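pinned: reference chain
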Amino acid sequence: MRWRSPLSALAWLALAAAALAASCQVHAQGLQPPQAALQYRSLLIRTAHAGWGMDAPVAVFAAQVHQESAWRPDAVSHVGAQGLAQFMPATSRWIASQAPDLATPQPYNPAWALRALVTYDRWLYDRTPTRYTPYERMWVALRSYNGGLGHWQQEAASTGLAQPSRAQVDAACGSARRAAVHCKENLGYPHRILVVLQPRYLQWGPGL
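pinned: its structure tokens
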């Protein structure tokens, strides 16, 4: 493209910059956390740091709570999952046996629920393949949070590979005990958290 004068070139660049800034502003506004989340920001950050250290993926946990309960501490799903973290009663009892500070299940208590979510994510993450990247390990942990670590491990074994990649195990969803009808939800769960929702919370802390 040839410019008729330096002035026209500058004017075009100014208009382009203004359009880009406006677009970014609209995009950023669409990525803001919901108002309901703000009251739990400090609590979640402290809880994440206590369980994972100062480099805890706070944005991931926030996105997960967003997905699970939309930040409603009294939320109850149609299958009976409870609270911010949407733990089933059996899972609440199990996690209580894993950590002294969770000894009394209180799924509707925001402090308990956030500790439980962060603790369970850590437990799952530690059981993912260490050869995977942190992002891939969190992907596996989230799939396991949603559908059970045992199902993921069985599908990994079903590939017949000694060290299947994360993508290869994803492709094997429904090949073991998990019914294939549940794969869309289970594979969509980490995608929604890590890709769709996480950007809203990057201002809270690190992501993956």
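why pinned: Confidence is low (pLDDT under 50) at residues 1-29. Residues 127 and 141 are 8 Å apart (CA to CA).
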